[in-house]
Amino acid sequence: MFTRLLRKQPKQETTTLTSLDKLNETLEMLEKKENVLQKKAYAEVEKAKAYTKSKNKKAAIQCLKKKKLYEEQIAQLGNFQLRIHDQMIMLEGAKATTETVDALRSGSSAMKAMNKSTNIDDLDKTMDEINEQTENMKQIQEALATPMGAAADFDEDELEAELEELEEAELEEQLLQPATTAPSAGPVKVPAGRVPRIRTEEEDELAALQAEMAL
Question: For the purposes of burial, counting CB atoms within 10 Å of the CB of 87, is it exposed (0-12), middle (13-18) or buried (19 or more)?
């Protein structure tokens, strides 16, 4: 029965709205009749008072009987209105229930569609592909950073030793430069008893070679 309710929901919603409109119209009609009867009952009471003053007891009693009849009709109309109110409340509740179920069904369908497009197998596959592409990119970057050709054959230890030799030669050249490039300050006075040292030819060749390397 609940399934049939869901399947016929659009048509049923139209029927519910039509029924609510009809009940509202009937309720307004009953309220108008009730107001008319209340006015008639009030009028009979006023007539009974007038007949009582004129000592027409029989006419006064007749007016009170009519008032009683009107009051019975008013009470009956009140019961009808109560039944209509009860029916309207039930229909409005059923309409709210149907709309709620329809909204839940729509949400469920949307959730199913989302789960179908993003199931766990596809997610695992996607994550594996991302990890694989990331690993491939790392390998490519490592390959690009690896020396190739003649640069790959260089001996790092040999290069380090050569660099140390250059540093030692530079230091030695700096130690020898003051004796050859220092500005002239006049004749050098040699203390008595000391003979100035004369550089050998080998030392001159070494100094010349270091000067060329510095250029």
Answer: middle
